[in-house]
Write a structure and sequence with these properties.
mainly beta; about 55% strand
Amino acid sequence: MSERAQAVAVVRIDESQVRVTEYRFAPQAETGWHRHEYDYVVVPLTSGRLLLEQPDGSSRAAELRLHEPYARRAGVEHNVVNDNAFELAFLEIELLR
């Protein structure tokens, strides 16, 4: 089990077609391992770098830019870590078909 702090997730909208969750990460906080069940869009509320840990043991960096969204398909599995010395936040919008 990781000794990192956990990101704080607050569900802002939970409807039949869409769920919007706000994630806030203290420095070095993580989501914990998870697999996305739905297609999703991420809208950064801050700019910064994420560390994405992969199931095969590898990791990669991803740069978030304030208000520049990106989309991913269902099935993505990872642990997301705030790789900054400051708080990082984004909205995750899941498309619940």
